[in-house]
Fold:
Amino acid sequence: MLTADKRDYRRGYKKHYETYKRMRENNSDVNSRRLLLIYSVECGLKWMLLDKWREVDPRKILDGADEIRKDILTSHNLQKLIKELGQQGNFKLPQLITIHKEQVSAEMYHQLYRYCIPTQIKEDHKEDKIEETLESVAEWIEEGM
Structure:
């Protein structure tokens, strides 16, 4: 895993979120657009975690003894990051089911959209809900920066 510091997470959030918004306005490819949204939110949430923990250099966490914080900081699980920030009641991310009948949790959203795996037809509304929720998370992050 490469080390990203607080500045890197902020920059990643800003750049990915701005690109996501341009893609949404242009009605660009939904998988690529959602993937950027997921990564922007992940960066923003990790920035907020470092801020909450009063830590600029994540190496202190990654090389330290606090396994819980280390696990959270290295996770792709958006729901776990949201929970650590005390917002689990405000932002709920549903599970999806792929056409291969595999369950997709918030920890695997990035894989779903990176590989352009279709979900079952009845899951379309859930995907729209995920995008709406992640947009709300991104706006909440923006307010905190």
Remarks:
- The longest helix spans residues 30-52.
- The beta strands are 96-97, 103-104.
- The two ends are 25 Å apart (CA to CA).
